[in-house]
Design brief:
The protein has a single domain, classed as Ribosomal protein L20, C-terminal domain (c-terminal domain of poly(a) binding protein). The protein is about 75% helix and about 0% strand. The chain contains 5 helices and no strands. It starts with 7 loop residues before the first helix and ends with a helix. The mean pLDDT is about 95.
Length: about 120
C-alpha cells in the first residue's frame, strides 16, 4: 500500500481543534491529544446545556407565575386550570413576564381564571 502523509489536511484539522481549545487550562490548550479530548467534552456539554437551558427557563417561569398567584390568593395549578377553562392561550413565558412587569394585567387574568373556575364549579 502507498504511504499517506496527509500534509495540509492533518495540519488544518489539528489547528481547528487547537483553535477551539483556546483559553483552556495548561496542556488542554497546547497539546493536540489533550486539546481534542477537552474540545469533544466541551462540545458534549454545550449540546446538553442547550437542552437543559429550556428546562431551566420553564421552571423559572413557573416559579414566577406561582409567586404572583400566591400573592393573588390562588394556587398555580388552579390558576392554569382556570385560564384553560376561560380559553386564554398565553404561554408560561408571557405569563411570567406579565407577572413581573405588569401586575394589574396579571391581576385581570387571575380574576378571569377565578371566574372560569367558579362557573364550572356551579
Amino acid at each position: 500500500m502507498p504511504r499517506v502523509k496527509r500534509g495540509t489536511k492533518r495540519r488544518n484539522s489539528r489547528k481547528k481543534t487547537l483553535t477551539l481549545a483556546k483559553g483552556f487550562f495548561l496542556t488542554k490548550s497546547k497539546l493536540y491529544r489533550s486539546a481534542q479530548e477537552a474540545v469533544e467534552k466541551s462540545l458534549r456539554y454545550g449540546y446538553k446545556g442547550r437542552r437543559l437551558k429550556k428546562r431551566d427557563f420553564r421552571s423559572l417561569w413557573i416559579v414566577r407565575i406561582g409567586a404572583s398567584c400566591r400573592a393573588a390568593e390562588i394556587s398555580y395549578s388552579k390558576f392554569m386550570d382556570g385560564l384553560k377553562k376561560a380559553g386564554v392561550e398565553l404561554n408560561r413565558k408571557v405569563l411570567a413576564d406579565m407577572a413581573l412587569t405588569d401586575p394589574p394585567a396579571f391581576g385581570a387574568l387571575v380574576n378571569q381564571a377565578k371566574a372560569a373556575l367558579e362557573k364550572t364549579a356551579a
